[in-house]
Amino acid sequence: MSIKINAVESGKTITVHAEGEVDVSNASELRDAIDAALKKAPERIVVDLAEVPYIDSTGIGVLVGAAHHGRDEGVALSVTNQQKNVARVLGMLGVEGELGAGDFAE
């Protein structure tokens, strides 16, 4: 599967936009993009999942690991605009609180 990722800086926030399915074959690309954002030491990183229809456990592990790393570095990380399928998986795994997952795409 392919994934497109771009990051946009706005003030002290970096928004990482992902497009496509996030799975074991490409989760490292998402991790690399978030790590690059963390190196810039923003106050906040937002991972926008509006264009992600599916995420597997590897992708969720990347997000949770990044949230923990961000917390260690004093950077708040949250996910936003997750589609219903992705939100359901985050909820079933009980990680939505760790990811600040509150905004959902319709």
From TrEMBL:
<feature type="domain" description="STAS">
    <location>
        <begin position="3"/>
        <end position="106"/>
    </location>
</feature>
<dbReference type="InterPro" id="IPR003658">
    <property type="entry name" value="Anti-sigma_ant"/>
</dbReference>
<dbReference type="Pfam" id="PF01740">
    <property type="entry name" value="STAS"/>
</dbReference>
<dbReference type="GO" id="GO:0043856">
    <property type="term" value="F:anti-sigma factor antagonist activity"/>
</dbReference>
<dbReference type="InterPro" id="IPR002645">
    <property type="entry name" value="STAS_dom"/>
</dbReference>
<dbReference type="InterPro" id="IPR036513">
    <property type="entry name" value="STAS_dom_sf"/>
</dbReference>
<comment type="similarity">
    <text>Belongs to the anti-sigma-factor antagonist family.</text>
</comment>
<protein>
    <recommendedName>
        <fullName>Anti-sigma factor antagonist</fullName>
    </recommendedName>
</protein>
